[in-house]
Amino acid sequence: MDESKELERRLSEMLTEGEMEESGEADKRERQLIPPKYEVRIQTETDPIVQETLMYRNMAREVDDRYDRYLERSAEKNNSSDTEKKDH
Predict the structure, then answer these.
(1) pLDDT the model gives residue 8
(2) How many angstroms separate the Cα of 88 from the Cα of each of 33, 75, 80?
(3) Do residues 34 and 11 touch, judged by C-beta distance below 8 A?
(4) 18: left (phi over 0), alpha (psi -120 to 50) or beta
(5) 29 closest CA partner among 15, 39, 17, 11
(6) DSSP assignment of 16-53, as one string?
(7) pTM
(8) What are the tens digits of pLDDT across the range 6-59?
(9) Label partner for 65 (CA 20 to 30 A): which of 7, 11, 46, 71?
(10) Which of 18, 15, 17, 45 is CA-nearest to residue 30?
């Protein structure tokens, strides 16, 4: 058994010892305490950070320019992805 499986098994045993074993919701609570193995990511057409930054810039002036580089990089990515789509 590899090390990660062994650690996960030991963690599960530790979480279910004592009071948790006695309660009727032991399985449910155990699942909530173990971190998920997978991460769900959703790909969007627009970047929500860019949209929000542009919205705030319409309302007020920024004190510093900390988001300028991010906006420039996202604009470059959009331009390169647009040209790739046109080529295909």
Answers:
(1) 85
(2) 46, 20, 13
(3) yes
(4) left
(5) 15
(6) HSTHHHHSTTHHHHHHHHSPPS-------SS-HHHHHH
(7) 0.38
(8) 888 888 787 777 555 555 676 777 777 777 777 788 888 888 888 888 888 888
(9) 46
(10) 15
Q: In this structure, what token pair is assigned to residue 63?
A: 């004190």
Tokens at residue 17, please?
């010892």
Separation CA 16–CA 23 (nearest Å):
10
Token representation of residue 14: 């530790």
What's the maximum distance between 2 C-alpha atoms anywhere in the chain?
63
Q: Which two tokens stand for residue 38?
A: 């997978």
**Letter for the amino acid at 35?**
P
pLDDT score recorded for residue 81: 67
